[in-house]
Design brief:
By secondary structure, this protein is an all-alpha fold. Helices cover about 65% and strands about 0% of the residues.
Length: about 300
């Protein structure tokens, strides 16, 4: 317990500095604590597991995100703490959602992306990547055939590196589709799923991998497993999030017949694409299958 409190204090100091200096979003540290507390209060209810566990209570009482991620890494692979890790993961995702909504309230810019990356890449990488895709979209100007011959057109350099799976940054896109894709990223980041489904559909149909992944993740959250499987299958070869979801669908038998061998293969694919939790899930599935075969 003493070691945990010391670790939390150190992590809060190290990770908190970047957050409190993000004056483009919050005018003061007190505003950050006040607004974050309000938002977390709206989306989460007291958890008896946390209230009855001094270790988790200390972890949840501090306002930062990275200590949650550090705890998850420390107990990864410990079967005795699998349930506690899931509770911490849910809280981590809630806090990431709060931060994503704060960034969504402000105009998109490369400067804010730099601050977002500096403060939250460790714990909220998917949300940071989504914001980076929005910045990339703003920096892809439509072609102007009147002023320049087609052969002479040169695409402007994006302000930030463009994710490999962002088809929008790699090939021409009409303005309406670009706006839909931008809305797709934003609405998914702030968990407005009903509007996100509508915004993501056209870009997903056009082959944008991130939009397809969002469609899969949202459908799964809404328990529409048939569509979750359909969209995840399209995006999984290029998206770690989609491949991981496909592994879960095969593992649970949602939207497709349960198949632990295929689940393990897709978790392995997700891990190769950089999904943080996929390797642990693959090991869980392989271990469970081995135990079942023994008995």
């Amino acid at each position: 317990m003493y070691r945990l409190l010391v670790s939390l204090t150190l992590l809060t100091f190290l990770t908190g500095c970047a957050n409190l200096q993000d004056k483009g979003l919050f005018s003061s540290s007190s505003e950050f604590f006040h607004r974050t507390g309000q938002a977390l209060g709206k989306i989460g209810q007291p958890n008896p597991v946390v209230e009855n566990n001094a270790e988790l209570k200390a972890l949840f009482d501090q306002p930062y995100i990275d200590p949650l991620t550090a705890y998850m890494r420390d107990v990864e692979g410990d079967p005795a703490k699998a349930d506690l890790r899931a509770v911490v993961a849910e809280e981590r995702d809630r806090r990431c959602a709060v931060i994503a909504s704060r960034y969504a309230e402000k105009p998109v810019s490369a400067d804010r992306l730099a601050r977002y990356r500096a403060g939250y890449t460790l714990s909220c990488p998917a949300d940071v990547a989504t914001y980076a895709e929005r910045v990339a979209l703003l920096n892809v100007a439509p072609a102007d055939p009147v002023e320049k011959p087609v052969a002479a057109q040169v695409a402007p350099e994006p302000a930030e590196p463009v994710p490999a799976e962002s088809v929008a940054a790699e090939q021409p896109m009409d303005e309406a589709l670009r706006k839909q894709l931008n809305d797709c990223y934003l609405l998914t980041a702030i968990r407005n799923f009903s509007s996100a489904l509508e915004a993501c559909h056209a870009p997903a149909d056009a082959g944008n991998v991130r939009a397809q992944t969002n469609m899969a993740l949202i459908s799964n959250a809404l328990r529409d497993y048939g569509n979750a499987y359909r969209w995840a299958t399209l995006a999984a070869p290029e998206s770690g999030d989609a491949a991981n979801l496909l592994g879960e669908l095969y593992s649970q038998g949602h939207g497709v017949g349960a198949d632990q061998a295929k689940a393990a293969l897709w978790f392995e694919k997700a891990a190769s694409l950089g999904h943080a939790g996929a390797k642990a899930r693959m090991n869980d599935v392989v271990t469970a299958s081995s135990d079942a075969n023994i008995h």
